[in-house]
Write a structure and sequence with these properties.
Layout lengths: L2 E6 L5 E6 L5 H7 L17 E6 L2 E2 L10 H5 L2 E3 L4 E2 L3 E5 L11 E12 L4 E7 L11 E5 L6 E5 L9 E6 L5 H9 L5 E8 L11 E6 L4 H13 L6 E7 L8 H10 L3 E7 L18 H4 L5 E6 L1 H14 L5 E7 L5 E7 L5
Helix pairs in contact: 4-5
Length: 347
């Protein structure tokens, strides 16, 4: 039996490989030319130590100097010894370049462009077949007719035949202008990826999702995966904040998730003082103490840099440190400016 193994490198590049029955992760990687850090192959040096973020495995045999009991209990394993017992997601402590690999490029076709609101566009690509990625990740998309690329998070879940994205309609933005004024169905587009360390980890406790503007996209992908794989379990709450009423998009999709995902709830808020929306202000004003659950919660945050920094400061001021805090900052032009994760006491 074969399993899908996602290798997520320090620079955010993700490569998916196949782990065959009885094959170590190191052997599976080297079989396809991905040279993850490795010295001894005997479980003695610890060079190939990686963090298992999702899935089950046989850790194999090794000595204490290579991997301590505390590290093993915390989810670390040695790639030269571990064998997959399910699909895996591994954080590799090296860059993709060092491991002699890179993001993969795919040819796609523009399926359609949708006007979601006065400020937001949605677009869909086809032609790649079901593309492997982790829900929450992004790809770099080349603006047709230029040598420039923009980064956009998937708003569709993994495993679908088409790939969907959200984009803020910037009047003179390169990609915005192309999609709004020039694009035609069937136009070729090139994507590279997937990339990003902002993705849904194995759900082990309640989740709090915080989205700003088109930062909603990765959460739509995450919710699509949850809807497809989970019939019940931990509660998930989303707070979706925008600047103006026109920025509120994809509400029907959120309402559909609320009907189909047990324990999923969401709230929207608008910052503009002149808004007619019933909930005004920023996302932090609409997080109840119960959503933080005394720290027994994993927080995911995606939005523009000022929002991310404001939420981080607010969390620190509450004195409640979430079990895990994952965040992604992006700029209006479509560039991902930072991806990070914090753990208790570091938010």
């Amino acid at each position: 039996m074969a399993y899908s193994i996602a290798l997520n490198f320090e620079d955010g590049v993700t490569r998916f490989i196949e782990g065959r029955e009885g094959e170590t992760v190191a052997d599976a990687s080297y079989r396809v030319g991905i040279n993850i850090p490795l010295d001894c192959r005997d479980g003695a040096c610890g060079t190939c130590k990686c963090r298992v973020e999702q899935g089950s495995y046989d850790g194999g045999s090794y000595i204490e100097d290579a991997l301590t009991g505390e590290e093993a209990a915390a989810g670390f394993a040695l790639a030269c010894q571990m064998r997959a017992k399910s699909d895996l997601v591994l954080a590799i402590a090296a860059s993709s370049e060092l491991c002699k690999t890179r993001g993969q490029s795919f040819k796609a076709r523009l399926e359609r462009v949708e006007r979601l609101s006065a400020t937001t566009l949605g677009f869909t690509l086809s032609g790649t077949g079901p593309l492997a990625f982790l829900p929450g990740q992004y790809v770099n998309i080349e603006v047709p007719g230029t040598d420039q690329k923009r980064s956009y998070s998937f708003s569709s879940p993994p495993g679908t035949e088409t790939l969907s994205f959200l984009i803020r309609d910037i009047p003179r933005g390169r990609m915005s202008t192309y999609l709004r004024d020039e694009a035609e169905p069937g136009a070729p587009m090139e994507i590279t990826g997937p990339s990003g360390s902002f993705y849904l980890r194995e759900i082990r406790r309640p989740l709090l999702f915080l989205a700003g503007g088109t930062g909603l996209a990765p959460f739509l992908s995450m919710l699509g995966r949850i809807a497809a794989t989970t019939t019940g379990g931990f509660p998930v709450h989303l707070v979706f904040g925008v600047t103006n009423d026109a920025d509120l998009v994809e509400i029907p999709r959120l309402e559909a998730f609320a009907r189909t995902i047990p324990g999923f709830t969401f709230a929207t808020c608008v910052a503009a003082a002149e808004s007619a929306h019933p909930r005004k202000g920023y996302v932090t004003e609409h997080i109840a103490p119960g959503h933080l659950r005394g720290g027994e919660v994993d927080v995911y945050l995606c939005g523009p840099p000022p929002m991310v920094e404001a939420v981080r400061s607010w969390l620190a001021a509450t004195g409640v440190a979430p079990a895990n805090f994952y965040y992604e900052k992006f700029s209006p032009s479509g560039a991902v400016t930072a991806i990070g994760e914090s753990h208790p006491g570091q938010a």
